[in-house]
Amino acid sequence: MATYVLLPGFWLGAWAWRPVADDLGGRGHDVHSLSLTGMGERAHLARPDTDLETHITDVLNLIHYADLRDVVLVGHSYAGAVVIPSVADRMPDRISRLVFIDSGPLPDGMSHLEFAPPEERSRDAERVRTEGDGWRLPPPPWRQLASEVPGLPDDTLERLVRLSAPQPWATATTPVRLAGAWEKLPRLHVLCGFPAAEVRARIGVVPAFRHMATESSAYRELPGWHWPMFDRPGELAAILHDAAV
Q1: Digit-coded pLDDT (tens) for 51-97
Q2: Using an 8 Å Cβ cutoff, are 13 and 165 in contact?
Q3: Are 72 and 96 in contact (CB under 8 A)?
Q4: Cα–Cα–Cα angle for 24, 27, 30, nearest 5°?
Q5: 32 in helix, strand or coil?
Q6: What superkingdom does the record give (predicted)?
Q7: How far, in Å, are 10, 31, 35, 129 from residue 164 at the CA level?
Q8: pLDDT tens-digit series, residues 196-208
Q9: What residues pair up with 168 in beta bridges, in sequence order?
Q10: Contact by Cβ (8 Å): 167, 140
Q11: With contact defined as beta carbons under 8 Å apart, do 102 and 192 qualify?
């Protein structure tokens, strides 16, 4: 039996992990899905000063107060890029492995926003200003994004539209601060949006990818949507199970 902590990316809460968590739990694992502050059932706690540090503290407190050890720490997208490396950097003795779902760890001093292309940054900043009261990024047009995803169940899409919450903008603009302790831990990258060959090609030319070039990094390809917990939950759960055995 392994202990998993599952962290969602932008706009999502613990609810997004339910099919994956149920599958892992059925295999005998101890699974903790966490809604970060301001998301999911904790949406009412969102504030303009909810930032990356808030979310790091959420995870550190879960591990501390639940006395979790040998944790397989799983982060999707934003949570993979900046949250799980930060947690592991501060509590490396409690973590056995880091799993990045369609993401990778950003270098020290880089914010999640800086990873996006300039036009996307400008578009999101304008949405925050005009639709998010100046401090929240509204969810994307899920039905439009999902229109080209084959086999996505209608009830899954309905839950995605109904349960997503605006993302506190400060979580995107806060630079990650890393001291290096996390780099000693083994890592698995589950790649959905692009193959491992493309990642390797970018490592030498794109600074944001440099932490993906280590001997402790392994890659598993799971082609499909950026949100595999919705379109391929069973296969994602199987990969996570394999990561801990």
Answers
A1: 999 999 999 999 999 999 999 999 999 999 999 999 999 999 999 99
A2: yes
A3: yes
A4: 60
A5: strand
A6: Bacteria
A7: 9, 22, 11, 19
A8: 888 777 777 766 6
A9: 136
A10: no
A11: yes
